[in-house]
Write the structure tokens for this entry.
Amino acid sequence: MSDKYLSDAEWKKFAKGRELKDASLLKALINFQKADKASPKEQLKLLDEIEDEGATLLKQHKADKDIAGRLADMGKAITVERKATTARADQAEEEEDDDAPTPALLSSKLIPLLRLVAKDKPMKALIAVTGKDAAVMLSPRAMSPSMRKVLASALGDPGGIKYLTGDCVFEERAHTFVLKTQPGGLAKKLKQAILDQTGLRLNVQVRGEGPNDSGE
């Protein structure tokens, strides 16, 4: 929001000494300058307001080349800012979609994350384990407790589920789950879980958090 053409202070300097009915435009600029912490969608609405008020003011002063030029520059600044803000809004929506607790997190959305791990991009891991089965979920960010419901549902909502959190990294040509606790046979369960969830046959190992903890 540093563009001078979207600054209320800069507009006041320009408008000083001119007889302009610019109160609505000035208000829109002030609101935009105060919207640093607002959502991208709200910022886009404020940009629309500035554009609308600028268009109204331009109708009143079409013959004034200085005003028309200034408002044209403001329009260009709005276009640039809108493009950047729209990109932020799209990213926010994607993150919301990624965080939504849906079964796709265990299948179609898990596949690209496993591939990123293989490219040395670690992921957070959330694992649900029962006596003989497991289900796994990955995310670039820490996962909320609500994600456990998705894992439980995948296992048929049995009782006695144990949840494990840790990281998934790529070591020794294998997807390696780094965990505080390592139930016996977990690597085998995770390998089968990934196959069942995604259809991918991967080398999987499990190790503790210490640098000398060996993989299972």
Observations:
- Residues 65-99 form the longest helix (35 residues).
- The chain has two domains: 4-99, 103-207.
